[in-house]
Design goal:
Elements (H helix, E strand, L loop, with lengths): L1 E6 L3 E8 L2 E9 L6 H14 L9 E6 L5 H12 L4 E2 L9 E2 L9 H13 L4 E6 L2 E7 L4 E9 L1 H10 L20 H28 L4 E5 L3 H4 L8 E2 L3 H13 L3
Parallel strand pairs: 1-4, 4-5, 6-9, 7-10, 10-11
Antiparallel strand pairs: 1-2, 2-3, 7-8, 8-9
Helix pairs in contact: 1-2, 3-7
Length: 256
């Protein structure tokens, strides 16, 4: 069994991949103040709560967009499994041709998303990863990673709106009954859900126009399930895209 860990800015996703199938997925809060021992105990407790013994893992892979936690998670994984994890970064084989100005700048999460999208969907493909930030990745018909776009994630934007104003409260991220709303809370919900969905639709139109062809559209990330139902384009919701990508990358880099 493979232990796959994706360290995001807000949450850390832990996946168990058995015979190329994702059998379990867990989330924990990303905390830069935690030590390797605290992460070791935290992950071990989650796994054992689900009846998963750490000695079942014969390999591990870590991806992180939080650089200070890379070595912390590497050490925690070694303590948990006895294996040195593959760490997604420079020098790791991905099979994806990264065509941006500086390939070393591409985040490990986008690398994993791209690898899985190439393996799973008809190209060209556009991937929306909706987390703390919303990232857009564009992969051409030859499996080349062209680049994309980046903007603040929905939760981050709504929190900033509440903090930066005197009278606007925090509201749950959920759709109201109408686009045109008659009270402040529903107006905020409308802007959050329908506004974000419209942004997604608009970016798809612009990217396809720039490429001159239609694309497969895939959405992933913690907030994607709240937005995709309100988009006008046909979008595939794939909540485990990144974990599958980590599994593929591990297979390309494991020691024989």
């Amino acid at each position: 069994m493979l232990l796959a860990i994706d360290v995001g800015n807000s949450n850390t996703v832990i996946g168990c991949i058995d015979n190329n199938e994702i059998s379990h997925v867990f989330r924990m809060v990303t905390d830069m103040s935690k030590t390797e021992y605290e992460y070791t105990v935290g992950i071990k407790n989650i796994l054992e709560f689900e009846g998963i013994s750490c000695d079942r893992f014969d390999g591990a892979i870590v991806a992180s967009v939080v650089p200070p936690l890379v070595n912390v998670l590497k050490a925690a994984v070694r303590r948990l499994t006895g294996h040195n994890p593959v760490v997604v970064g420079a020098g790791v084989k991905t099979g994806m041709n990264i065509l941006i100005d500086n390939p070393a700048q591409l985040g490990s999460d986008l690398v994993a998303d791209g690898v899985a999208a190439i393996a799973s969907y008809q190209l060209p493909v556009i991937v929306f990863d909706m987390g703390t930030a919303t990232t857009i990745s564009v992969i051409d018909q030859n499996a080349g990673f062209l680049g994309g776009a980046l903007y603040p994630g929905l939760a981050l934007s709504m929190n900033a709106l509440s903090r930066g104003t005197s009278q606007l409260p925090k509201v749950p991220i959920e759709a109201p009954d109408r686009v045109i709303c008659a009270n402040t809370i529903d107006c905020m919900k409308s802007g959050a859900i329908f506004g974000t969905a419209s942004m997604v639709d608009g970016m798809i139109d612009r990217i396809e126009e720039e490429l001159g062809m239609k694309c497969t559209i895939v959405a992933t990330g913690g907030l994607s399930s709240r937005i995709v139902p309100y988009c006008k384009h046909e979008i595939i919701h794939d909540e485990n895209l990144l974990l599958r990508g980590l599994g593929i990358i591990y297979e390309k880099n494991k020691r024989k």
